[in-house]
Amino acid sequence: MSNAIDLSDEELQSENGMFVQAGAPQAVRDDPVLGERFRAWVNRCRQQQELEKLAAEIHEIGRRISKGDAAANGDLLKLGNSLIAMASA
Amino acid sequence: MSPDHYSVGLMDNRPRPARRVSATLVRPFPADQLDAVEAAWASERRDLATRRDLDGDPIEHEHWDWRRKKERVAKGDTLLSAIVHGADVQGLIGMAAKPRTASLNPGLAALYVDYLEVAPWNLGSATETAWFSGVGTVLMLEAIAVSVVIGCGGRVGLHSLPQAESFYTAKAMTRIGPDPNYYDLVYFEYDGAVATERLARARRTT
């Protein structure tokens, strides 16, 4: 087996525009103040991702309601209840 | 130690349609060339950070500076590999020479990826296409290959920046979860069998 690496076109193109960086920057590791700022930024990103997920879920339920899916009302209620629980936690 | 050179395929997205190009994987990448890499990447990284801020999609790695890794690379604490196309380094991966305990298989060792960065022109933005794609994927395959060489059986772990989590999920790594001991970044790990199968598939096509 050769050590050469040749991926399919599909796999190569699937990476296009994806962010791939890993590891905390050395400056962050060296500086506690920068480190805490970095941690706060990571958590803001996570909250943003959660919000985007919620928005997509609400959008999907809205789509199902507009199509007359009876079960969607129940799902919306469940989602609302879990949001209330999250907000009061 | 003189570096080994391996052929790797990338996709050049600048022409229409995009076309495959051959690049070179350099292992180990010499520490004394990190100054030149940083000279080429630093201003591009700052420009990209500004553009992504304006797009509402900020990045938080403009503090990266590969020159700070020179000493660790020279001492042998960090193993460095790079993908080179033309005169430019297209991506770099720094791996800890000392393996860590695997999360998926406690008792077994995993190679830890300390840093992975692709050249700023390969990240793209809302308004600009990434020049080359495949750089991150090939660097992860390199991590698997190095893991096998040092006796870790293909197991690889890393902490992903938040915007990169979907990339590592797409590459079949297992999401272990946020690590409170490492800035709450999410830790990902490759199971050895999954990883070695991916590497074998990429090598079979050559």
Textual characterization of the structure:
The complex is a heterodimer of chains A (89) and B (206). Chain A is mainly α and 89 residues long. In chain A, 72% of the residues lie in helices and 0% in strands. In chain A, helix 3 (32-66) runs antiparallel to helix 4. The radius of gyration of chain A is 21 Å and the shape is flat. The model of chain A has no long low-confidence stretch (mean pLDDT 88). By secondary structure, chain B is α+β, with helices and mostly antiparallel strands. Helices cover 30% and strands 31% of the residues of chain B. Chain B has helices at residues 34-54, 70-75, 135-149, 165-170, 192-204; strands at residues 4-12, 19-27, 78-85, 88-96, 100-101, 109-118, 132-133, 156-160, 174-178, 186-190. In chain B, strands 1, 2, 3, 4, 5, 6, 7, 8, 9 and 10 form a ten-stranded mixed beta sheet that branches. At the A-B interface, helix 1, helix 2 and helix 3 of A face strand 1, strand 6, helix 3, strand 8 and helix 4 of B.
